[in-house]
Amino acid sequence: MKGNEALAEAAIRSGCRHFFGYPITPQTEVAAYMAKRMPKIGGTYMQAESEVAAINMILGSASAGVRAMTSSSSPGISLKGEGISYIAGSDLPCLIINVQRGGPGLGGIQPSQADYWQATKATGHGDFQILVFAPSTVQEMVDTVADAYDMAEKYRMPAMILADGMLGQMMEPVVFEDKEYVPAEKPWATNGHGFKRERNVTNTLYLTPNELEKRVVDRFKRYEIVKENEPRVECLGTEDADIIVVAYGATSRIVKSAVKSAREQGIKAGVIRPITLWPFPDKAIAAAADTAKAFLCVEMSMGQMVDDVRLAVNGKKDVHFFGRTGGVIPTPAEVLEQIKKIAGGVK
Amino acid sequence: MINLLNKLTIITGHYGSGKTNIAVNLALDLKKMGKEVILVDLDIVNPYFRSADFTEELEAKGIEVSAPVYANTNLDIPALTAAIGQAIVQREKYVIVDVGGDDAGAAALGRYSEDIMARDYNMFYVINRYRYLTRDAEEAAEILSEIELMGKVKATGILNNSNLSYETSVEDILSCAAYAEEVSQETGLPIAAHVIRKDLLAQCPLERTYGVDIFVKPVWEKKQDSQDS
């Protein structure tokens, strides 16, 4: 399957019956797939009049307690920012897909990772976080969808799958597990009290600053639990590595190819691949900083995740950066060259 | 199969069925046989993983590549050039036309249908049983009829390209032979060939096979440049 199709099918199998979106390259296959499948399984597909409308439909359906999903690519996610903030401020779970393309502005349609800051630090206004997952294979995209929904519901917060044009468009074989979706209890859902319980309210407006502050502080206590328990990371050859290359998503596959070549040439290199970008796996990186001699962060951007890598390394070792942007994909050879350059310095 | 080709060969099929990889292989094989070859990238639907990606390496081998004006740029516009029409009309050189997916892609073909129907041609319908929406013969036949309706050109044969990318085993291919037969019966089209990766070809007892190299793949699967000295 194509990455985009796999995301859509995985969402359906995870119980998603409400999809609201708006076409944009390179994620349009998600919407196209939903448009074909949803009517056949009793679900709802709606092409909204804009990204802003789509995210507000998500706010409504998430409030009603159903599994809803929207998807877009970079400029479209910017438009959704306001709605994402409302969903986070309403403590509602939902799934948002961002198949990143080059920016800023209209940018380009080729793959990019320049929305890291947006996804992990500023999806919208206000004090809040969302869960951000960064799968690197089509199979992992499939597996992540169910986890993202479960975790979003557990912590009552929006989840985002941060993919890129490469992952969305490439094809790989995938396996879908036969797992039946059992809806979790959602006592907070605004799905009709039937005069049997107090009415539930979805709201982000609080009349006094103290009341609002308490809400936000409580939410941040929940974030601490997420940061403690949920970071995910893949470490490859880090135990004896002199140089650790940090990369996520499609870039991590380019990096793995380069690191393999480096090992073949006698350079002790390893890979740390954050699978969750928020919560960021800073403990794994901090631990590696005790044994490795230098870090290299590789991204399809001018350097965004490298900030979090530097925070985790905390000055213990040098953190280098290599990136291509604007839709240009780094090659394994370019990454290998960077590794060799650093290896020349640390030996 | 390659020896039986007319000078005009059109490759159609569902999205991601493997059209581009087959088109590039055919162009290279014809060139190896000493033919003059033009590869036309007629994909106006999906801007990724397309024949135009291979322009540089094909041109280096003496194959002409004709693509929509803005192919491989950030301008997502389906503008077709006069050179594409010229390639389809001329009768000197071999032409391979790589069409976009489904009926949406075949719309571009409709523009040239009169010129195509006026001459001998092959139009292959590429099928991969492992692709969603063409998993059974009925679905596959439905997509073909949509392609023919929109493209206003009748298909002449089936290329069974059933595969699971890099995980493909001989068993995976053999288990789809019956499916290809069913599609053949459902559509009334002969199976022109079973398309099989060259390294699996020797172990495959099927008749009418066409061995291919895999050109369409992500950057990390491509051989690294030898510039790392």
3D structure, described in words:
The complex is a heterodimer of chains A (347) and B (229). Chain A has 347 residues and is of the alpha/beta class. Chain A folds into two domains: 3-229, Thiamin diphosphate (ThDP)-binding fold, Pyr/PP domains (Rossmann fold); 233-345, Rossmann fold (3-Layer(aba) Sandwich). Chain A is 43% helix and 17% strand. Chain A is built from twelve helices and twelve strands. Chain A has a seven-stranded mixed β-sheet, sandwiched between helices. A five-stranded mixed β-sheet of chain A has the order 7-9-8-11-12, sandwiched between helices. Chain B contains nine helices and eight strands. In chain B, α4 packs parallel to α6 (137-151) and α6 (137-151) packs across α8 (177-187). Chain B is globular. Mean pLDDT of chain B is 93; it is low at 225-229. The interface between A and B is medium-sized, with 36 and 23 residues.
The arrangement of helices and strands of chain B along the chain is: EHEHEHEHHEHEHHEHE
CATH superfamily of the largest domain in chain A: Thiamin diphosphate (ThDP)-binding fold, Pyr/PP domains
CATH T-level topology of the largest domain in chain A: Rossmann fold
CATH architecture of the largest domain in chain A: 3-Layer(aba) Sandwich
Strand/helix succession of chain A: HEHEHEHEHEHEHHEEHEEHEHEH
Helix percentage range of chain B: 25-40%
Q: How many structural domains can be distinguished in the coordinates of chain B?
A: 1
**What's the tally of helices of chain A?**
12
